[in-house]
């Protein structure tokens, strides 16, 4: 885990401050031209740029005398703005000539300020002072405008915020020309200001400059644009680096940083105590065997690092430490705090954090294994290009093997927080995932895992049944001083004090041993008093502390939010979504709908999407949710509903999600919101919702509602297919999802094979009619459909589509670089497909075609493909006995140009060298090369991969053919053949292809022959049984009269 701040992703949400009604042209220009540019720059780095503008509809609200809340919504504006500034790390302020409303000096006594004051400014001061900002009532600040109070809070009282000021320079460029337009504007501006207002603005600007804060002066829109671009592009580059080396897919590189950002955010809430210190010490003690004994000859993150680990047997008995407890006991916060402390003390030690729930892919086991494997491999080998294998992707057991092999490369720690949140994945049901069928039976000795889960989840039962798991229970918090600290940490208002009697009442309650319980009460105390007198606040607090569980407390809090912030939905809204919302009066209105929409969404919703959804539900016109209403709710939600780095609002704590599920279960309308969201994302514009977000949400909601026909239609829509075919590599999780959906659809009677054939036929027809024809689009579609068909086990159908795509190239089309890159991928996939189908002639042909295509291309990706094609070609030639054609190809493969591209290349190159040397009767050299190839492939793939079995079989063949076999060699031959048989049997059951059965029969025959020569009667009998099995397989494949079958029967 890196310690760099650039790995910490967070949404850039600077508070946008200006005087109401001033600089409107500049603000409109920034929102239309500059801010979208900065947001696009952030999106490429996995985050977003969303300035918070509380003034934008301050005086546009027309409620026709309808009183929204008491006190009036606009009386809370100052309090809300100070809350937002308090939580923002950045502040943008544009100052022109206006100063804004303020209390006159002679009317600024505290007796004139209260809820019944005639002045809106006075009422704002009263509400903000009561809600935790009493400093605004001091003589120095009481007569300031609300905007100056915002500046005071952001720049003068707090000193941790990055502030940027932009002052409008109204001075005309030609002061001598009295008739110029600039001069008229300048004089008119001065005439409209009072002396007091001009003096206050001068004093404010002088104060800002005297504090040495960054100030820019601009004359026009162009200058303002350049200044803000330079300033904020610098901020973006400083805090969010451009991911130049993605782990395995563009999205995976962001996911890794989301995990580290989530951990950092959790650390902000940690409160140390004696029990937590004991847990932290226990975690470090558990890891002592690898942290104290693991030594590296070079830096553990450098390429080619070699690890040595002297493990004490007693210390290494347990590989997994399970930290368990009830939900809300602080497991995640504790894990995050340990992670930060450990990484600071051991900066060179490899720690991979995975916090389930931080993104869509974080709860998918396949994605978790893939991401962890990629990080482990890159920590050992350094950076290398992605190795894309559509056939490899399908099988989960191979991903588990690769993960185990990567974990064996060197000392490492894997932290998996919230394993109970893992859900179903391609090939495993939710129950199978929770039964940990994906977790290796034994972890490598260098690898330790720390896992957190809840007592009540099936993962707890599955883990405690393993012998390599050490269990650690998360303790209850019983110290009143620690409980008090947790409460105040979440209250986070230094000027708001709680009476001792109130604190004692809270601490005496049973549920206060849970940090989550205290945290919820603390955050509620920030906002619940705004609409209540002191007695009412204490009554509400008493109701909260009487809750018997955290979910029950959440239900009470949700009811409070709905009651305080949501207007009762009038008849027209109720009729709009009668079938989608509860008929209960205590849970209705826009606040409840907002919570439901965010909760039911798969990955969260942006603010713009939530507001658009609310309009779809009927909240428009007079019922439209105003900016201040929305921001006030966001302030109450915080920190339980927050924006992730990518701008998506999500529920941050599982206890709130659990409470929402309980309410949904009681009301029975969960599917209704799935339908609303599916329909919304389908009709939304790409400005509101990108294609990646559509693919993340729409199929998932259709699947949740059982709308399989609609799911089929959406996935087969040409626009969907076009996006998937052009963008799938950037989103590895999307690949898993798409194959999962098509697997489900095929099980329910839909036919993806016929559909893809029809779609491709239509594309080929359109290609003939288009001028100019878009060959690239057809090739992308062919590759995508073929990849899905391969994952579905339809090799022959995939071959047909690829062959058709290759044939199109022969019709004299123009050869641009993009088309050539797609063509070589088509030819490469065909060559790999023919290897799987054991068709050496076809393999050789498409290797030659691909190499010919590659002549005009040069990139890291093409080099990787060329290296693979050369290896496949060399193997095909050697198998055919054409040694004369191999030497030139072998020299090209052996050059560092291809071997250095990817770690896998080393093992294949050594295998080819071994076969070549063996053909030249250089058996000793061949043996060393076979052993090197075997070690290399085991390091990459694990021990049970078919490519490992391939080398084992050939090494055993070499030893078996030798005339002088020692007893040790004989045992090794049998071991290698037995393991090859086991691997081939697994592949035969998985692939169910004639070629795999043929391979199995060959290895059975070889092992049988070796055992027949054994001195043991048992082994000789076993050898006869193995030969009979091999004969049965060949009879099944070739028939009893085939020459190969007869030869085997004679043996």
From TrEMBL:
One of its GO terms (molecular function) is ATP hydrolysis activity. The keyword Repeat applies. GO terms for cellular component: Cul4-RING E3 ubiquitin ligase complex. InterPro entries: AAA_22, DCAF12, P-loop_NTPase, TPR-like_helical_dom_sf. Residues 316-441 form the ORC1/DEAH AAA+ ATPase domain. It holds the Pfam family AAA_22. This is ORC1/DEAH AAA+ ATPase domain-containing protein. PANTHER family: DDB1- AND CUL4-ASSOCIATED FACTOR 12-RELATED, DUF4062 DOMAIN-CONTAINING PROTEIN. SUPFAM superfamilies: P-loop containing nucleoside triphosphate hydrolases. Keywords: Repeat. The lineage of its organism: Eukaryota, Metazoa, Chordata, Craniata, Vertebrata. The keyword Repeat applies.
